[in-house]
Fold this sequence. Notes:
This protein is α+β, with helices and mostly antiparallel strands. It has helices spanning 15-39, 45-72, 80-101, 143-150, 163-176, 234-252, and strands spanning 112-114, 157-159, 180-185, 190-196, 203-213, 216-225. α1 (15-39) packs antiparallel against α2 (45-72), α2 crosses α3 and α5 (163-176) packs across α6 (234-252).
Amino acid sequence: MVPRQSQAVIPRPSSIAFFSSLLASVAIALVVAGPLLANVGVLPPLSGFYTFLLGIQCAALGLAFGALGLRATRTGRPGRPRAWFAVVSGAALVAIFLAIALPAHRLPRIDDVTTDPDDPPVFEAAADLEPNRERDMAYPADFAPQQRAAYPDLAPIRLAAPPPDAFARARSAAESLGWEITAADPARGVLEAEQRSRVFRFVDDVVVRVRPADGGSVVDVRSKSRDGHGDLGESARRIRAFRTALAGAAGGS
């Protein structure tokens, strides 16, 4: 009688590796879907942003479980490619997020920035818009010291041009930056606008005020976010971009 040959036992694939790859796949889907759906208007901006953050959390979990999966499959157990997929994709997504978030970590959590905290321009037309009717559009007094510490370069912009010319230049600068003008009163020197962020389509309200000063004009700007409790420095960058564009408009006239 010929003895039966024993069959080799094939180890079961690692469930940890499978779970890590599942988390990584979900993370990629959420990270892509959040900005995309917000950009096309399917999700509100804040919902799109939270979807993106959920994707980053899944990526971090996928990275952790992927590391465990690599440990579980180090002896040849099936599932190692899945674990590597989770580790590589999770590390990439987390690294991208940290590269964006860490530079803004030291910035204050304020969503209203102006060139003149002592006498900020007032939102009038923006206050009547439906998204702002239940909001307090006044500049918070406690933002002033935080803003001065974080953005010491922001100050009233002085021009040698008379107010009518300065207002025209301010409008030209705003339009060159892609702002959507919502109200303009040249007689009072007040211009209001909206600007949407490129990725999540967050809407910020902006007001520009032009007043006579020392034979020329002084221009003040204020930018206020509609969502969240901080803007990661976006309002300050917007004001700086306006200041640069205004200098260009003045130099080209």
